[in-house]
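Progress note, sequence design subtask.
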């Protein structure tokens, strides 16, 4: 037996195996705990529990490290493209030139969506949030693209993965066009993934969209930074829902719903809303910091803090430099950037934020980048979803291929009433 730890429960000592990850992180394997002792563990929010082993993404929250398949995110942001990074995440290795070319072509070949899907959009109420629409549309994709006869399971999965990666971006751009009452712009075979998305969003019959390589590069970096983040809320959701062996579209649809929340992917939209509020109240950050410190006020400084990163979010630093570059290129001055910088400067010296290990996360500056690209605020979380898709798919694939994978079914500690007899309605007291 390898390394173990001893646990003494009610005078009885049991030995539990210890697992060590590639980077030295340790876990106690408690999978036989209940069988051996009758006890379970309790860990609300699962901050101390590993739900799986995974070879996709490594994070070190103390050192501020993020690597996909071993490669630092800084190197990918500097040298890779979103499509190549998606290949890396999903297939587990960097592609050769030929593989990358074939992958890009298959993404383009699958980029159209069934024409009837346009009718769905027409029937959502005007004020619907794009994340709710996107989640529904992705679920609907299964009806339009059912399982293909005659393909092996691997071929079927590969086809579904390609379709999803390609069509999510088309669906997102379509939702924007339709929400504005504009003509839908179709994907073009001569454009790469990011240019195609920007073109589908902003090209119009009367004003052709001019592709700017620096903005395309900014979008590549934005999506690379969001590619995967190990077992975060939406990824865990994809794994949990996927563990019931539902199809990939349904699992991703659930992941999109989870990402929507303001404590998770919805934070990028919430940051801009908060910065606009500070701006319209006179640009003084002090009352907002005071509110964030106040235990009796539910207000939180959006774009600050992270469950894992406790020194800095490596993505935050990269997105901040992208933000500077994009605004410089566009020769644009965004007053929200001034406020964000002031907020960061003051918060990083504030004992509350220091003691609570609260630093700007990726969402703090990403909204300003997206604004500069022309993306409307309510589409920000959709942009996060497109970036996170390769990670969700990779994690779903890994879970379905794991020989030890089980249906997710946690236990609980019941705190309700003990056995209580049923009282017929006419015998109940205090009924009105
Ligand atoms: N502003 C003020 N106080 C905060 C903040 C914040 N942004 N974040 C955490 N705290 C305080 C919190 O009040 C609590 O204080 P105390 O211990 O005195 O009661 C303490 O820090 C721990 O908070 P927690 O909610 O238990 O910590 P967590 O690890 O569960 O929180 C978080 C992580 C991201 C939910 C949280 O930091 C937060 O709500 N941040 C704002 C939303 C945000 O920016 N989310 C995007 C995260 S990055 C994108 C992604 O990967 O999804």
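Output:
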């Amino acid at each position: 037996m390898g390394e173990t730890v001893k646990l003494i429960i009610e005078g009885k000592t049991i030995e539990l195996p210890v697992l060590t990850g590639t980077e030295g992180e340790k876990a106690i394997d408690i999978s036989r705990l209940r069988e051996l002792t009758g006890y379970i563990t309790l860990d609300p929010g699962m901050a101390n529990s590993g739900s799986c082993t995974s070879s996709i993404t490594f994070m070190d929250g103390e050192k501020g490290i993020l690597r996909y398949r071993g490669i630092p995110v800084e190197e990918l942001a500097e040298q890779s493209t979103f499509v190549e990074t998606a290949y890396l995440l999903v297939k587990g290795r960097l592609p050769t030139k030929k593989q990358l070319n074939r992958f890009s072509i298959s993404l383009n070949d699958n980029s159209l969506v069934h024409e009837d899907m346009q009718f769905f959009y027409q029937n959502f109420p005007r004020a619907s949030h794009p994340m709710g629409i996107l989640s529904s549309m992705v679920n609907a994709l299964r009806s339009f693209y059912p399982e293909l006869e005659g393909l092996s399971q691997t071929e079927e999965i590969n086809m579904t993965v390609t379709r999803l990666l390609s069509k999510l971006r088309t669906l997102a751009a379509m939702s924007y066009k339709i929400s504005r009452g504009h003509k839908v712009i179709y994907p073009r075979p001569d454009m790469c993934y990011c240019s195609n998305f920007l073109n589908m969003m902003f090209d119009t019959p009367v004003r052709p969209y001019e592709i700017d390589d620096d903005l395309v590069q900014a979008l590549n970096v934005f999506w690379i930074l969001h590619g995967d983040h190990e077992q975060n809320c939406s990824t865990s959701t994809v794994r949990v829902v996927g563990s019931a062996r539902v199809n990939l579209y349904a699992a991703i649809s659930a992941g999109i719903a989870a990402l929507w929340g303001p404590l998770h992917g919805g934070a990028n939209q919430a940051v801009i809303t908060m910065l606009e509020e500070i701006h319209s109240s006179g640009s003084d950050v002090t009352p907002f910091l005071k509110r964030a410190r106040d235990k009796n006020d539910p207000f939180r400084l959006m774009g600050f803090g992270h469950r894992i990163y406790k020194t800095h979010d490596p993505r935050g630093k990269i997105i901040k430099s992208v933000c500077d570059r994009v605004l410089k290129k566009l020769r644009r001055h965004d007053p929200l950037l001034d406020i964000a910088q002031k907020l960061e400067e003051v918060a990083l010296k504030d004992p509350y934020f220091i003691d609570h290990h609260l630093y700007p996360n990726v969402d703090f500056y990403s909204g300003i980048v997206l604004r500069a690209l022309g993306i409307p605020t309510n589409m920000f979380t959709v942009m996060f979803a497109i970036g996170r898709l390769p990670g969700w798919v990779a994690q779903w694939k890994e879970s379905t291929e794991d020989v030890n994978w089980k249906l997710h079914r946690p236990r609980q500690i019941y705190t309700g009433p003990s056995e209580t007899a049923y009282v017929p309605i006419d015998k109940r007291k205090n009924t009105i």
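The pocket of carboxymethyl coenzyme *A is lined by residues 229, 232, 263-265, 267, 292, 300-307, 356, 358, 361-363 (CB under 6 Å). Work on this subtask will continue into the next period as scheduled.
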